[in-house]
Design a protein that fits this description.
The protein is mainly β and about 750 residues long. The chain is about 0% helix and about 55% strand. Strand 67 and strand 68 form a beta hairpin. The chain is flat, with a radius of gyration of 35 Å.
């Protein structure tokens, strides 16, 4: 968000303001800087972007304008004024910020030296004084019925803020009453097979519709068989599989084939009467379903496994099976008899009665019992002992060619490690990505591998190993901007990490290289997301009305510092990686953006215009002690920390339109590392501080707004030369990150 992009330059219109500035910083930007001297150039053309704009009532949005001379050169000192054709619909401030006043269409003009450019602005929403209710909703929103089935529709009126409003009288209408009828109370009845629409309207002219589908569908019963003792009860439900297993509570008639064995109520409640076999029959439109019911005799004995007596040891985080089967007086089994299980201490273990599985939860001793009426219970003493293993670390990120060592330990009842586990067998599910030998993992190629350690007693634990390239990049080679990774050595080329219909930008790896934070417009606005380093498990962190971007990790990987758009300005904020504890760190009317965190996690460097010019500032991680670091007449951008605490940043070269890459200390003194002939749009510093990746851009065709991008790698050592990284012709590269 260094400045506003020039109109006509071919960048993604959907990109947030700070990304446009990355694309065109230094060669196609027009930023009004207070106090800047006026240039003696004649304005030949004024351009604005976007070409059209839609703004809600009470909302604000900035437009961007630039002036050019007859040769197409940018006039950065040109004075631009703004004008609205109808201030009752849309107002425009001196800085180009448009405010929606009332719904309608207005024209906004940018003027300079008699030249002008305009855009159409559509204001949407509801003006003040509108009716309290603005929308009518129906619940449910769609209805599927069987023939003869009915459902009541509930209408609700909502205000613009989403709160309920008075609804008044509602009139109902079915467009095809021969398929489904609706009465004055909103009760819809299926009449014949087909589809129709039911309309609801209020006296204030609000209207809502819902689709209704009526058809003949097979139903099933929720139980395939039932086993009961005399006087026990169970419930059968009627479900329609073709309609999402919804439950049907009417239209079904119930009966029992032998009511002396079991009876059934009109709501499907089955009650056992005497030992024997019967069927419960559910009859509906042109079909019927049956459930066999067995009423078994009383049990006389209980046969269990394992045998009772002594103490049964179960390793922590493993499972153990228990069975208890009832027997009749003639020793015949009654597997359908309902055995009641009880665990004395649920803090030590849990028990699934359906499967007979005991699962330890903590070290200790408990008792498990199985009972039947009038039969002595079966009781086991269960001792939970350590036995589960854990691999440390559970997640690890590696560059291709790196090696790390995983360790496995026995886990105690607190989830911690007790001792190193012996006799382990190590395996990798993708040995072409990561190869493991006795816990030593070698990273072979980008991807995700699951490394497992298996103990001799059968227990195993896994670790997620993410192998990544040297650089993350954003490219439009797939159409929309997507996230790619690149290996600097070895086979060249970009490997897609997240490429879909959304615009995904400003990707940065976490300190442990297992996750990626980025900005995306997949939910309309640009929000912050995190995902695993293989592009999976996306999690949205922010959902504010504005845009968020430029994420930077704290060294512990627990928080992100980022730029947020708060109307006409941008500010620095911080958020936990789980999406909680979101705090704004900077305030005021100036732009604050492009944050980066020092290696010791104590300092944030950022760009601000609070003193007029675009300079580098620093502050504490909590936003305290904000101070200016650079005092240059040119604009500074792209701050990056060296591991030593020194700061790398980019400053303009003035009229040459190139850039200088500087290295400065905490005191503010800086020295030149190298210069470029073309302006640097974005820059990354390697984690060891030994090399820089940067993108430069050149306005190759001013008439068509075509920009050429180039990607370079260069050592930070004195006298080093840049190395060109090949990209495709016309490809736009953004946001390199090590």
């Amino acid at each position: 968000m260094i400045s506003a992009p020039i109109a006509g330059a071919r960048t993604d219109r959907g990109l947030p303001p700070w990304t446009r500035s990355y694309l065109l910083t230094g060669f196609a930007l027009a930023t009004l800087i207070p106090g800047a001297p006026a240039a003696a150039q004649t304005v030949s053309e004024v351009q604005v972007t976007p070409e059209t704009m839609t703004v809600g009532v009470g909302q604000k949005q900035a437009i961007f304008a630039a002036a050019f001379d007859q040769r197409g050169n940018l006039i950065p000192s040109a004075k631009i004024t703004f004008w609205s054709s109808d201030t009752l619909i849309a107002q425009v401030r001196k800085d180009g910020t448009v405010l929606g006043v009332t719904p309608g269409l207005a024209k906004i003009e940018a003027r300079s030296q008699g030249k002008r450019a305009s855009l159409a602005v559509l204001i949407t929403g509801t003006a003040r004084g509108a009716p309290v209710a603005s929308v009518l909703t129906l619940e449910p929103a769609a209805v599927t019925l069987l023939l003869g089935e009915s459902v009541r529709i509930s209408p609700q009126a909502l205000r613009e803020d989403g709160k309920p409003a008075a609804i008044g009288r509602v009139t109902w209408k079915s467009l095809k009453p021969e398929i489904a009828t609706v009465d004055s109370a909103g009760v819809v009845v299926g009449v014949s097979a087909g589809r129709t629409i039911v309309q609801a309207a209020t006296g204030t002219r609000l209207m809502a519709t819902l689709p209704v589908e009526v058809g003949q569908a097979d139903f099933v019963l929720s139980r395939s068989k039932i086993s009961l003792e005399p006087e026990e009860a169970d419930t059968i439900r009627v479900l329609v599989p073709s309609q999402g297993n919804r439950e049907v509570r009417a239209l079904v008639q119930w009966r029992s084939s032998d009511s002396t064995v079991a009876t059934v109520s009109s709501s499907g409640i089955v009650r056992a009467r005497a030992p024997g076999q019967t069927e419960i029959i559910a009859s509906g439109p042109a079909q019927e379903q049956r459930v066999p019911v067995s009423v078994h005799p009383s049990a006389e004995a209980l046969v269990v496994s394992p045998h009772q007596g002594g103490t049964i040891q179960v390793p922590l985080y493993s499972t153990r099976q228990f069975t208890a089967i009832a027997e009749a007086a003639d020793s015949s089994p009654i597997p359908e008899a309902r055995v009641v299980w009880h665990l004395s201490d649920t803090a030590v273990a849990s028990f699934d009665q359906r499967t007979g599985t005991l699962t330890p939860k903590g070290l200790g001793t408990t008792t498990l019992s199985a009972t039947l009426p009038e039969i002595p219970p079966a009781v086991w003493t269960v001792q939970v002992v350590p036995g589960e293993i854990v691999v440390d670390p559970a997640r690890v990120g590696l560059l291709v060619g790196q090696r790390t060592t995983l360790t496995a330990h026995l886990r105690d009842d607190q989830g911690g490690s007790t001792s190193r586990s012996p006799a382990l067998r190590w395996t990798s599910d993708r040995s072409e990505v990561a190869l493991v030998r006795d816990g030593a993992v070698d990273a072979l190629s980008p991807g995700h591998a699951l490394v497992s350690a298996t103990a001799s007693w059968g227990k195993s634990a896994t670790a997620d190993v993410y192998v990544v390239g040297d650089l993350l990049l954003v490219s439009n080679r797939g159409g929309a901007y997507g996230i790619y990774q690149m290996r600097i050595s070895g086979s060249a080329g970009l490997l897609p990490l997240l490429v879909d219909n959304a615009t995904n930008i400003q990707a940065v790896l976490s300190p442990d290289r297992t996750r990626v934070a980025f900005s995306s417009n997949r939910a309309t606005n640009y929000d912050l997301y995190v995902m695993d380093a293989d592009g999976r498990n996306l999690q949205r962190l922010t959902s504010n009305p504005g845009n968020e971007g430029e994420p930077a990790w704290t060294p512990d990987g627990k928080r992100l510092v980022y730029t947020t758009n708060t109307g006409a300005t941008t500010q620095i904020a911080t958020i936990s990686v789980d999406g909680g504890d979101n705090r704004q760190l900077t305030m005021g009317l100036s732009r604050n953006q492009s944050p980066v965190v020092s290696a010791d996690g104590r300092t944030i460097a950022f760009v601000s215009t609070r003193d007029g010019n675009q300079e580098i500032y620093t502050m504490g991680l909590d936003g305290s002690n904000q101070r200016r670091l650079t005092k240059s007449p040119a604009r500074d951008s792209n701050p990056r920390f060296f591991p030593t605490g020194d700061l790398l940043y980019v400053t303009e070269r003035g009229k040459s339109k190139g850039s200088r890459v500087m290295r400065g200390g905490a005191a503010g003194s800086a020295g030149l590392l190298f210069e470029t002939d073309q302006p640097i749009a974005s820059l990354a510093l390697s984690r060891d501080g030994d090399r820089v990746a940067y993108v430069v851009g050149r306005l190759a065709d001013p008439a068509k707004g075509r920009v050429e991008f180039n990607l370079f790698l260069q050592s930070t050592a004195s006298g080093s030369q840049p190395v060109t990284v090949p990209i495709r012709p016309g490809e736009q590269i953004l946001n390199p990150s090590f």
